[in-house]
Design goal:
The complex is a heterodimer of chains A (359) and B (301). With 359 residues, chain A is an alpha+beta fold. Chain A contains 8 helices and 20 strands. In chain A, a hairpin with a 3-residue loop joins strand 16 (298-309) and strand 17. In chain A, helix 2 (97-107) runs parallel beside helix 4. With 301 residues, chain B is mainly α. Chain B folds into 2 domains: 11-57, no CATH class; 79-300, MetI-like fold (Orthogonal Bundle), CATH 1.10.3720.10. In chain B, helix 12 (258-266) packs antiparallel against helix 13 (272-299). Mean pLDDT of chain B is 87; it is low at 1-7. Classes of the chains: A alpha+beta (359), B mainly alpha (301). Chains A and B meet through strand 6 and helix 2 of A and helix 8 and helix 9 of B. Bound molecules: adenosine-5'-triphosphate and magnesium ion (MG). The site of adenosine-5'-triphosphate has 12 residues of chain A, from strand 2 and helix 1.
Chain lengths: 359, 301
């Protein structure tokens, strides 16, 4: 096993169902050992299918899947050093918590004494102590989720696959479990491949994220890079809030909007290219007068066309006339001026906060 | 102050169970009203005849064979220990158990195969095929088997052609074949219902947790089909034990089963008390066996 061997290597993998459905479309991806990797994308984009192919529950129509350099081919799931936490948990209803968790070890013919000690450890790890002899039907959603996690972790797999494991939980519990999962992952040091359609969840938990759309992997990168530097319109729109303004590149680092205003922004296209300028609402500031804006910033004039209250923040929709409109998010603190619909405002942003994306 | 504070909740607690009990009582009464027609039916057509059978089992037999409700005795029950009765009971039990096992093995494979067809329309079609035999009378179908198994029947001809078997009519194998044919649907239907309900992601989870295909079947699919196995087995075992038509038409004199034996007591032999005692005994045994099966089924499979 060399240092460069990926925990999971996916090379040119395509999965078709019948003639028409292309669930996964020519994916290349390497997930490193010990990494918390998330597959993020909207419903039906092929996340589950990708995961099932890694698990061996589905076989690729084309391409190869390697686990620590070993070609998986048509190897059945029971012969892969991988375990899965299923979307619906798939706990065995006819077995109690202990037997559910010990199932994998018993199937691997691990000695009885070791099975019970490892099951005990796993139960403690996921904080289910005392619930050993309950049936899954007698557990709450969060507890079932922990059993599913323990049942997979107890086998000490080289890679753990998780398919929207928190999808069925309410918001508060989900946030708690996110932190717990992340802790468990860094404690056991196993590679996690985590599927979710919740971009916030992916951003909070992952080292790296792979964004999928229509069966294709559209961007792979560190969570922060995915958020700060989306490489295409889909990622820009799917991850976080984003405003879009049409325009064209004037020269490197400079963009002209549809209304004629010229602003400085990050560009990587040649002059004359039509682009879309993307801006995060929280990276913009509103002022009443141009004189208040710190020197060296981009300045645009507009008027407030809508105000939305979010509790910890307020969102203003600002009209720029011919250039379009965008959202500005402002923290709800006393030092911030409250604007009303119709107010004339000056928008200011740092040139690093705006990117020009070629269509 | 503390005193009143402590008292208040205890008063409320005392009030709540009373309310709950009232609701339960009303619920029970409503349930009873709903069930009145069913109770009436059961009493008239089930309990009453059973009581009559029981009463007659202690009656005496007149000179002409007429049952007399005078000299009460237990002769009918005493005859149950006859060697002949024992042979017949043993044979019937063997036939019923074997038939249940055959039906279970064949029926499970078949039900599993239907339940795992991908398209709903295919599954429906296959189920209809299972039910089609019911469109014609059981007696007629049994006579059809008689023709197939007779000297010049196709099955006999096939056996003679291959040299594997001869005429099977009026032998125990013929009875087995007839019973298997007759009761297989009763096994397939509940098994199908149970297998179709199984969440296949459980089997996938098993495979993911290092179970081979066979292990996953034994540890997950089979236990989860238990309701179907129990229902199917009872639906086949009980009528097999009392089977009358099939052994009567396809079996010979040497293969008399309980059902035929009882009919004989009420008919040709004109011994109602003995026939009643036999019927009562079967009923008791069957009841015990069913309870036992449910109990053990709850633990093992
Ligand atoms: N067994 C199958 N037969 C036919 N089509 C399938 C099958 N499984 C998945 N698909 C299709 O493949 C596509 C991808 O499905 P997949 O389950 O991987 O999506 P997903 O990203 O996990 O979505 P979700 O977030 O809703 O779970 C979908 O269009 C789906 O309809
Ligand atoms: Mg999915």
């Amino acid at each position: 096993m060399t240092a460069s061997t990926a925990a999971v290597g996916i090379h040119g993998v395509t999965k078709r169902f019948g003639e028409d459905v292309v669930a996964v479309d020519d994916i290349d991806l390497e997930i490193q050992d010990g990494e918390f990797f998330s597959l993020l994308g909207p419903s039906g984009c092929g996340k589950t299918t990708t995961l099932r192919m890694i698990a061996g529950l589905e076989y690729p129509t084309a391409g190869s899947i390697r686990i620590f350099g070993e070609e998986m081919g048509l190897r059945p799931p029971n012969k892969r050093p991988i375990n899965t936490v299923f979307q619906s948990y798939a706990l065995f209803p006819h077995m109690n918590v202990e037997d559910n968790i010990g199932f994998g070890l018993r199937m691997q013919k691990v000695e009885k004494a070791e099975v019970s000690s490892r099951v005990g450890e796993a139960i403690d790890l996921v904080r289910l102590t005392g619930l050993n002899s309950r049936r899954p039907g007698e557990l709450s959603g969060g507890q079932q989720q922990r059993v599913a996690l323990a049942r997979a972790l107890v086998n000490r797999p080289k890679v753990l696959l998780l398919d929207e494991p928190l999808g069925a939980l309410d918001l508060k519990l989900r946030q708690t479990m996110q932190l717990e999962l992340k802790d468990i992952q860094s404690n056991v040091g196993i590679t996690f491949v985590y599927v979710t359609h919740d971009q916030e969840e992916a951003l909070t938990m992952s080292d790296r994220i792979g964004v999928m759309n229509h069966g294709q992997l559209v961007q792979v990168g560190r969570s922060e890079d995915i958020y700060e530097f989306p490489s295409n319109m889909f990622v820009a729109g799917f991850v976080g809030e984003m405003s879009f303004l049409p325009g064209e590149v004037v020269e490197t680092g400079s963009v002209r909007l549809a209304g004629g205003e010229v602003v400085r922004a990050r560009t990587d296209s040649s002059p004359g290219t039509s682009i879309t300028l993307i801006l995060r609402p929280e990276k913009l500031h509103l002022y009443g007068e141009v004189s208040e804006v710190p020197p060296g910033r981009n300045v645009l004039n507009g008027s407030v066309s809508r105000r939305t209250f979010y509790g910890n923040s307020l969102s203003y929709e600002v009209e720029l006339g011919a250039s379009g409109s965008f959202d500005v998010q402002v923290e709800n603190v006393p030092s911030q001026t409250r604007w009303d619909v119709g107010d004339k405002v000056v928008i200011d942003f740092h040139h690093e906060a705006a990117s020009a994306l070629a269509e | 102050m503390t005193l009143t504070d402590e008292r208040k909740p205890s008063e409320e607690e005392a009030a709540n169970p009373e309310l709950e009990r009232g609701a339960e009582r009303r619920e029970a009464w409503r349930g009873f009203l709903h069930a009145v027609p069913a109770y009436a039916y059961l009493i008239v057509f089930f309990v009453l005849p059973l009581v009559i059978v029981f009463v007659f089992s202690f009656a005496s037999r007149g000179r002409t064979g007429r049952p007399l409700l005078e000299d009460w005795n237990v002769d009918g029950w005493a005859r149950l220990t006859d060697p002949l009765v024992r042979t017949i009971v043993g044979r019937s039990l063997l036939v019923a158990v074997m038939n249940t096992v055959f039906c279970l093995v064949i029926g499970y494979a078949f039900a599993y195969w239907i339940a795992t067809r991908r398209k709903q329309s295919t599954r429906t079609l296959l189920l209809i095929l299972v039910l089609i035999p019911f469109w014609s009378n059981f007696l007629v179908r049994t006579y059809a088997w008689r023709m197939l198994l007779d000297s010049d029947g196709y099955i006999t001809q096939l056996g003679e052609f291959t040299g594997l078997w001869g005429r099977t009519l009026f032998t125990l194998p013929a009875v087995f074949l007839g019973l298997l044919y007759g009761y297989l649907p009763f096994m397939v239907l509940p098994l199908y219902a149970a297998i179709e309900r199984i969440d296949w992601s459980l089997v996938e989870a098993g495979r993911d947790l290092y179970a081979s295909g066979v292990k996953a079947f034994l540890r997950i699919t089979l236990p989860l089909s238990r309701p179907g196995i129990i229902a199917g087995s009872i639906l086949v075992f009980v009528p097999s034990l009392g089977a009358y038509v099939t052994p009567d038409i396809l079996g010979g004199a040497k293969t008399t089963l309980l059902g035929n034996f009882i009919v004989t007591q009420f008919g040709a032999a004109r011994n109602w008390p003995f026939g009643s005692a036999l019927s009562g005994a079967i009923l008791i045994v069957m009841l015990l066996a069913t309870i036992l099966y449910f109990r053990t089924g709850g633990r093992t499979v």
